[in-house]
From TrEMBL:
<keyword id="KW-0645">Protease</keyword>
<feature type="domain" description="Peptidase M48">
    <location>
        <begin position="58"/>
        <end position="249"/>
    </location>
</feature>
<comment type="similarity">
    <text>Belongs to the peptidase M48 family.</text>
</comment>
<protein>
    <recommendedName>
        <fullName>Metalloendopeptidase OMA1, mitochondrial</fullName>
    </recommendedName>
</protein>
<dbReference type="InterPro" id="IPR001915">
    <property type="entry name" value="Peptidase_M48"/>
</dbReference>
<keyword id="KW-0482">Metalloprotease</keyword>
<dbReference type="GO" id="GO:0034982">
    <property type="term" value="P:mitochondrial protein processing"/>
</dbReference>
<dbReference type="GO" id="GO:0004222">
    <property type="term" value="F:metalloendopeptidase activity"/>
</dbReference>
<dbReference type="GO" id="GO:0005743">
    <property type="term" value="C:mitochondrial inner membrane"/>
</dbReference>
<comment type="subunit">
    <text>Homooligomer.</text>
</comment>
<keyword id="KW-0862">Zinc</keyword>
<dbReference type="GO" id="GO:0046872">
    <property type="term" value="F:metal ion binding"/>
</dbReference>
<dbReference type="GO" id="GO:0006515">
    <property type="term" value="P:protein quality control for misfolded or incompletely synthesized proteins"/>
</dbReference>
<dbReference type="InterPro" id="IPR051156">
    <property type="entry name" value="Mito/Outer_Membr_Metalloprot"/>
</dbReference>
<keyword id="KW-0479">Metal-binding</keyword>
<dbReference type="Pfam" id="PF01435">
    <property type="entry name" value="Peptidase_M48"/>
</dbReference>
<keyword id="KW-0378">Hydrolase</keyword>
Length: 331
Protein backbone atom coordinates (compact mmCIF):
# COMPACT_ATOMS: atom_id res chain seq x y z
CA UNK A 1 0.00 0.00 0.00
CA UNK A 2 2.88 2.32 0.91
CA UNK A 3 4.61 1.45 -2.35
CA UNK A 4 1.40 2.11 -4.25
CA UNK A 5 0.89 5.49 -2.57
CA UNK A 6 4.49 6.46 -3.27
CA UNK A 7 4.03 5.37 -6.85
CA UNK A 8 0.90 7.45 -7.22
CA UNK A 9 2.59 10.51 -5.77
CA UNK A 10 5.82 10.22 -7.73
CA UNK A 11 4.28 9.49 -11.10
CA UNK A 12 1.79 12.29 -11.45
CA UNK A 13 2.25 13.97 -14.79
CA UNK A 14 0.78 17.00 -16.54
CA UNK A 15 -0.98 16.21 -19.78
CA UNK A 16 0.48 18.19 -22.71
CA UNK A 17 -1.90 20.76 -24.29
CA UNK A 18 -4.71 20.31 -21.76
CA UNK A 19 -2.64 20.63 -18.56
CA UNK A 20 -4.71 17.93 -16.85
CA UNK A 21 -2.94 16.04 -14.03
CA UNK A 22 -2.80 12.29 -14.60
CA UNK A 23 -0.91 9.22 -13.54
CA UNK A 24 1.84 7.75 -15.74
CA UNK A 25 4.01 4.87 -14.60
CA UNK A 26 6.07 4.83 -17.79
CA UNK A 27 8.82 7.22 -18.78
CA UNK A 28 8.30 8.78 -22.20
CA UNK A 29 11.42 6.98 -23.48
CA UNK A 30 10.12 3.53 -22.47
CA UNK A 31 6.73 4.39 -23.86
CA UNK A 32 8.20 5.35 -27.24
CA UNK A 33 10.40 2.25 -27.30
CA UNK A 34 7.38 0.06 -26.67
CA UNK A 35 5.46 1.89 -29.38
CA UNK A 36 8.29 1.17 -31.84
CA UNK A 37 8.18 -2.55 -30.98
CA UNK A 38 4.40 -2.56 -31.36
CA UNK A 39 4.73 -0.85 -34.76
CA UNK A 40 7.18 -3.56 -35.85
CA UNK A 41 4.68 -6.24 -34.86
CA UNK A 42 1.93 -4.49 -36.86
CA UNK A 43 4.23 -4.16 -39.87
CA UNK A 44 4.76 -7.91 -39.79
CA UNK A 45 1.06 -8.58 -39.41
CA UNK A 46 0.13 -6.24 -42.28
CA UNK A 47 3.12 -7.08 -44.51
CA UNK A 48 0.95 -8.47 -47.34
CA UNK A 49 -1.74 -5.82 -47.01
CA UNK A 50 0.18 -2.53 -47.14
CA UNK A 51 -0.48 -0.29 -50.14
CA UNK A 52 2.63 0.86 -52.02
CA UNK A 53 3.65 4.47 -51.37
CA UNK A 54 2.90 5.20 -55.03
CA UNK A 55 -0.80 4.34 -54.52
CA UNK A 56 -2.93 7.46 -54.65
CA UNK A 57 -4.72 6.46 -51.42
CA UNK A 58 -1.40 6.29 -49.59
CA UNK A 59 -0.43 9.65 -51.03
CA UNK A 60 -3.65 11.31 -49.85
CA UNK A 61 -3.13 10.07 -46.28
CA UNK A 62 0.55 11.03 -46.41
CA UNK A 63 -0.35 14.56 -47.50
CA UNK A 64 -2.96 14.98 -44.76
CA UNK A 65 -0.68 13.62 -42.01
CA UNK A 66 2.33 15.69 -43.04
CA UNK A 67 0.15 18.78 -43.33
CA UNK A 68 -1.27 18.20 -39.83
CA UNK A 69 2.26 17.69 -38.47
CA UNK A 70 3.63 20.75 -40.23
CA UNK A 71 0.83 23.05 -39.10
CA UNK A 72 1.13 21.82 -35.51
CA UNK A 73 4.91 21.78 -35.22
CA UNK A 74 4.74 24.32 -32.38
CA UNK A 75 3.67 21.35 -30.19
CA UNK A 76 6.86 19.50 -29.08
CA UNK A 77 5.10 16.11 -29.06
CA UNK A 78 4.29 16.68 -32.74
CA UNK A 79 7.67 18.00 -33.91
CA UNK A 80 9.72 15.50 -31.85
CA UNK A 81 8.63 12.47 -33.88
CA UNK A 82 8.70 11.73 -37.59
CA UNK A 83 5.24 10.83 -38.83
CA UNK A 84 5.10 7.71 -41.01
CA UNK A 85 2.03 6.56 -42.90
CA UNK A 86 0.91 2.97 -43.56
CA UNK A 87 -2.29 2.30 -45.48
CA UNK A 88 -3.68 -1.20 -44.89
CA UNK A 89 -5.90 -2.85 -47.49
CA UNK A 90 -9.04 -4.00 -45.66
CA UNK A 91 -12.70 -3.17 -45.14
CA UNK A 92 -12.36 -2.31 -41.44
CA UNK A 93 -13.44 1.25 -40.65
CA UNK A 94 -10.38 1.90 -38.55
CA UNK A 95 -7.36 4.16 -38.11
CA UNK A 96 -4.87 4.42 -35.27
CA UNK A 97 -1.67 6.27 -34.48
CA UNK A 98 1.13 5.04 -32.25
CA UNK A 99 2.92 7.58 -30.02
CA UNK A 100 6.14 7.26 -32.05
CA UNK A 101 4.38 8.72 -35.09
CA UNK A 102 3.43 5.51 -36.93
CA UNK A 103 0.05 6.11 -38.56
CA UNK A 104 -2.09 3.12 -39.69
CA UNK A 105 -5.21 3.70 -41.80
CA UNK A 106 -7.42 0.99 -43.32
CA UNK A 107 -8.79 1.52 -46.81
CA UNK A 108 -12.23 0.90 -45.22
CA UNK A 109 -11.85 4.22 -43.42
CA UNK A 110 -10.83 5.98 -46.65
CA UNK A 111 -13.96 4.65 -48.35
CA UNK A 112 -16.12 5.88 -45.47
CA UNK A 113 -15.02 9.51 -45.22
CA UNK A 114 -16.58 11.78 -47.82
CA UNK A 115 -13.85 14.39 -48.10
CA UNK A 116 -10.37 15.40 -47.05
CA UNK A 117 -11.75 17.55 -44.22
CA UNK A 118 -13.35 14.54 -42.54
CA UNK A 119 -10.13 12.56 -43.00
CA UNK A 120 -8.12 15.41 -41.44
CA UNK A 121 -10.45 15.50 -38.43
CA UNK A 122 -10.32 11.69 -37.95
CA UNK A 123 -6.53 11.65 -38.22
CA UNK A 124 -6.31 14.70 -35.95
CA UNK A 125 -8.32 12.77 -33.37
CA UNK A 126 -6.02 9.73 -33.61
CA UNK A 127 -2.89 11.90 -33.49
CA UNK A 128 -4.30 13.60 -30.39
CA UNK A 129 -4.58 10.22 -28.60
CA UNK A 130 -0.92 9.58 -29.48
CA UNK A 131 0.57 12.90 -28.47
CA UNK A 132 -1.46 13.06 -25.27
CA UNK A 133 -0.08 9.63 -24.31
CA UNK A 134 -3.57 8.27 -23.77
CA UNK A 135 -2.63 4.60 -24.12
CA UNK A 136 -0.12 4.81 -21.24
CA UNK A 137 -2.58 6.80 -19.16
CA UNK A 138 -5.39 4.36 -19.83
CA UNK A 139 -3.23 1.41 -18.80
CA UNK A 140 -2.07 3.27 -15.69
CA UNK A 141 -5.47 4.40 -14.55
CA UNK A 142 -8.09 1.92 -15.59
CA UNK A 143 -7.55 -0.78 -12.98
CA UNK A 144 -5.29 -1.02 -10.03
CA UNK A 145 -4.36 -4.53 -11.14
CA UNK A 146 -3.28 -3.21 -14.52
CA UNK A 147 -1.23 -0.60 -12.77
CA UNK A 148 0.53 -3.23 -10.65
CA UNK A 149 1.06 -5.46 -13.71
CA UNK A 150 2.54 -2.52 -15.57
CA UNK A 151 4.94 -1.76 -12.73
CA UNK A 152 5.92 -5.41 -12.39
CA UNK A 153 6.31 -5.96 -16.11
CA UNK A 154 8.24 -2.73 -16.55
CA UNK A 155 10.64 -3.86 -13.81
CA UNK A 156 11.10 -7.25 -15.49
CA UNK A 157 11.57 -5.51 -18.83
CA UNK A 158 14.22 -3.23 -17.35
CA UNK A 159 16.03 -6.10 -15.65
CA UNK A 160 15.93 -8.53 -18.56
CA UNK A 161 17.16 -6.92 -21.76
CA UNK A 162 15.45 -8.55 -24.67
CA UNK A 163 18.73 -9.66 -26.24
CA UNK A 164 19.93 -11.80 -23.36
CA UNK A 165 16.58 -13.21 -22.30
CA UNK A 166 14.79 -13.12 -25.60
CA UNK A 167 11.81 -15.30 -24.71
CA UNK A 168 10.95 -13.62 -21.43
CA UNK A 169 11.61 -10.19 -22.87
CA UNK A 170 9.35 -10.88 -25.82
CA UNK A 171 6.56 -12.17 -23.58
CA UNK A 172 6.79 -9.13 -21.32
CA UNK A 173 6.81 -6.81 -24.31
CA UNK A 174 3.68 -8.48 -25.69
CA UNK A 175 1.92 -8.16 -22.32
CA UNK A 176 2.84 -4.49 -22.06
CA UNK A 177 1.66 -3.87 -25.62
CA UNK A 178 -1.67 -5.50 -24.85
CA UNK A 179 -2.10 -3.38 -21.72
CA UNK A 180 -1.18 -0.21 -23.53
CA UNK A 181 -2.32 -0.35 -27.10
CA UNK A 182 -5.11 -2.91 -27.47
CA UNK A 183 -7.87 -1.51 -25.35
CA UNK A 184 -10.65 1.00 -25.83
CA UNK A 185 -10.23 4.44 -24.35
CA UNK A 186 -12.52 5.82 -21.68
CA UNK A 187 -15.15 8.38 -22.58
CA UNK A 188 -13.10 11.07 -20.85
CA UNK A 189 -10.04 10.37 -23.01
CA UNK A 190 -12.21 10.18 -26.14
CA UNK A 191 -13.70 13.59 -25.38
CA UNK A 192 -10.22 15.02 -24.82
CA UNK A 193 -8.98 13.54 -28.13
CA UNK A 194 -12.04 14.99 -29.90
CA UNK A 195 -11.27 18.42 -28.51
CA UNK A 196 -7.51 18.39 -29.17
CA UNK A 197 -7.95 16.60 -32.53
CA UNK A 198 -10.35 19.29 -33.70
CA UNK A 199 -7.80 21.95 -32.71
CA UNK A 200 -5.08 20.17 -34.70
CA UNK A 201 -7.42 19.98 -37.70
CA UNK A 202 -8.39 23.66 -37.32
CA UNK A 203 -4.74 24.72 -37.35
CA UNK A 204 -4.33 22.60 -40.51
CA UNK A 205 -7.14 24.71 -42.07
CA UNK A 206 -9.64 21.86 -42.36
CA UNK A 207 -13.32 22.75 -42.43
CA UNK A 208 -13.95 21.67 -38.83
CA UNK A 209 -17.72 21.76 -39.44
CA UNK A 210 -17.23 18.48 -41.36
CA UNK A 211 -16.53 16.63 -38.08
CA UNK A 212 -20.11 16.39 -36.81
CA UNK A 213 -21.26 15.51 -40.36
CA UNK A 214 -19.04 12.42 -40.34
CA UNK A 215 -20.73 11.12 -37.19
CA UNK A 216 -24.19 11.85 -38.57
CA UNK A 217 -23.26 9.90 -41.70
CA UNK A 218 -22.08 7.01 -39.54
CA UNK A 219 -25.35 7.01 -37.63
CA UNK A 220 -27.38 6.88 -40.84
CA UNK A 221 -25.07 4.22 -42.25
CA UNK A 222 -25.71 2.04 -39.21
CA UNK A 223 -29.45 2.62 -39.46
CA UNK A 224 -29.56 1.75 -43.14
CA UNK A 225 -27.37 -1.34 -42.85
CA UNK A 226 -29.34 -2.47 -39.82
CA UNK A 227 -26.17 -3.87 -38.33
CA UNK A 228 -26.46 -4.12 -34.59
CA UNK A 229 -22.69 -4.44 -34.21
CA UNK A 230 -20.53 -1.40 -34.88
CA UNK A 231 -17.25 -1.44 -36.78
CA UNK A 232 -14.31 -2.23 -34.51
CA UNK A 233 -12.97 1.28 -34.30
CA UNK A 234 -16.36 2.78 -33.55
CA UNK A 235 -17.42 0.23 -30.97
CA UNK A 236 -14.73 1.57 -28.66
CA UNK A 237 -15.98 5.10 -29.08
CA UNK A 238 -18.99 7.02 -27.76
CA UNK A 239 -22.25 6.75 -29.68
CA UNK A 240 -22.41 8.72 -32.92
CA UNK A 241 -25.17 10.95 -31.59
CA UNK A 242 -23.18 11.92 -28.47
CA UNK A 243 -20.18 12.51 -30.60
CA UNK A 244 -22.05 14.80 -33.00
CA UNK A 245 -23.42 16.84 -30.09
CA UNK A 246 -20.04 17.08 -28.38
CA UNK A 247 -18.23 18.11 -31.57
CA UNK A 248 -20.93 20.63 -32.42
CA UNK A 249 -20.28 22.40 -29.13
CA UNK A 250 -16.58 22.62 -29.96
CA UNK A 251 -17.05 24.04 -33.46
CA UNK A 252 -17.30 27.80 -32.66
CA UNK A 253 -14.03 27.71 -30.72
CA UNK A 254 -12.32 25.62 -33.43
CA UNK A 255 -13.49 28.09 -36.09
CA UNK A 256 -11.98 30.96 -34.11
CA UNK A 257 -8.69 29.07 -33.82
CA UNK A 258 -8.78 28.31 -37.54
CA UNK A 259 -9.34 31.96 -38.35
CA UNK A 260 -6.38 32.99 -36.19
CA UNK A 261 -4.12 30.63 -38.20
CA UNK A 262 -4.35 32.58 -41.47
CA UNK A 263 -6.35 29.89 -43.26
CA UNK A 264 -8.31 30.44 -46.49
CA UNK A 265 -11.91 31.45 -45.83
CA UNK A 266 -14.49 28.68 -45.55
CA UNK A 267 -17.46 28.33 -47.91
CA UNK A 268 -20.46 30.29 -46.63
CA UNK A 269 -22.58 27.16 -46.73
CA UNK A 270 -22.23 25.08 -43.59
CA UNK A 271 -21.70 21.38 -44.51
CA UNK A 272 -23.87 20.43 -41.51
CA UNK A 273 -26.82 22.35 -42.93
CA UNK A 274 -26.19 20.91 -46.41
CA UNK A 275 -26.13 17.40 -45.01
CA UNK A 276 -29.32 17.83 -42.96
CA UNK A 277 -31.12 19.30 -45.96
CA UNK A 278 -29.92 16.50 -48.26
CA UNK A 279 -31.15 13.85 -45.85
CA UNK A 280 -34.47 15.63 -45.47
CA UNK A 281 -35.01 15.89 -49.23
CA UNK A 282 -34.02 12.26 -49.84
CA UNK A 283 -36.33 11.00 -47.13
CA UNK A 284 -39.26 13.04 -48.38
CA UNK A 285 -38.66 11.80 -51.90
CA UNK A 286 -38.40 8.24 -50.64
CA UNK A 287 -41.64 8.59 -48.69
CA UNK A 288 -43.45 9.87 -51.78
CA UNK A 289 -42.02 7.02 -53.87
CA UNK A 290 -43.05 4.45 -51.32
CA UNK A 291 -46.55 5.87 -51.11
CA UNK A 292 -46.95 5.66 -54.89
CA UNK A 293 -45.10 2.54 -55.91
CA UNK A 294 -44.18 0.84 -52.67
CA UNK A 295 -40.63 0.70 -53.99
CA UNK A 296 -37.46 2.48 -52.80
CA UNK A 297 -35.96 5.18 -55.02
CA UNK A 298 -32.94 4.26 -57.01
CA UNK A 299 -29.71 4.52 -55.07
CA UNK A 300 -31.27 4.90 -51.65
CA UNK A 301 -32.03 1.76 -49.63
CA UNK A 302 -35.33 1.60 -47.73
CA UNK A 303 -35.18 3.83 -44.68
CA UNK A 304 -35.99 2.18 -41.38
CA UNK A 305 -38.80 3.72 -39.38
CA UNK A 306 -36.48 4.53 -36.50
CA UNK A 307 -34.34 7.13 -38.26
CA UNK A 308 -33.64 9.80 -35.65
CA UNK A 309 -35.71 12.96 -35.99
CA UNK A 310 -32.72 15.07 -34.93
CA UNK A 311 -31.05 14.28 -38.23
CA UNK A 312 -33.97 15.65 -40.17
CA UNK A 313 -34.27 19.06 -38.52
CA UNK A 314 -32.20 21.56 -40.53
CA UNK A 315 -32.09 23.99 -37.61
CA UNK A 316 -31.22 21.49 -34.94
CA UNK A 317 -27.54 22.36 -35.10
CA UNK A 318 -26.00 25.44 -33.50
CA UNK A 319 -25.01 28.17 -35.93
CA UNK A 320 -21.30 28.50 -36.60
CA UNK A 321 -19.69 31.69 -35.37
CA UNK A 322 -18.06 32.51 -38.67
CA UNK A 323 -19.48 32.60 -42.12
CA UNK A 324 -17.16 33.32 -45.00
CA UNK A 325 -17.75 34.09 -48.61
CA UNK A 326 -15.10 32.27 -50.58
CA UNK A 327 -15.43 28.75 -51.82
CA UNK A 328 -11.88 27.48 -51.54
CA UNK A 329 -10.13 25.76 -48.68
CA UNK A 330 -6.83 23.98 -48.60
CA UNK A 331 -6.01 21.08 -46.35
ZN1 LIG B 1 -10.61 7.85 -30.17
Amino acid sequence: MVILSLLLLTHLDESPLTGRTRLLVFSRESYLELAALTAEAYMEEFAELLLPVTDVRHQVVERVVQHLAQRNKDIPEVSDVSWTVHVVQGPTVNAFVLPNGEVFVYTGMLETVTDVHQLTIILGHEMAHALLGHSAEQASLSHILDLLSLVLLSAIWALCPRDSLAVLGHWVQQKLSQLMFSRPYSRKLEAEADQVGLQLAAKACADVRAGPVFWQQMEIRDQLSGEPSLPEWLSTHPSHRNRTTHLDRLIPQALELRQSCVCPALPATDPRAVFSETVRVLLEKNKREEAHAAAPIHGLPPVPAGLPAALLAPNSLPASSHVHQENKTSV
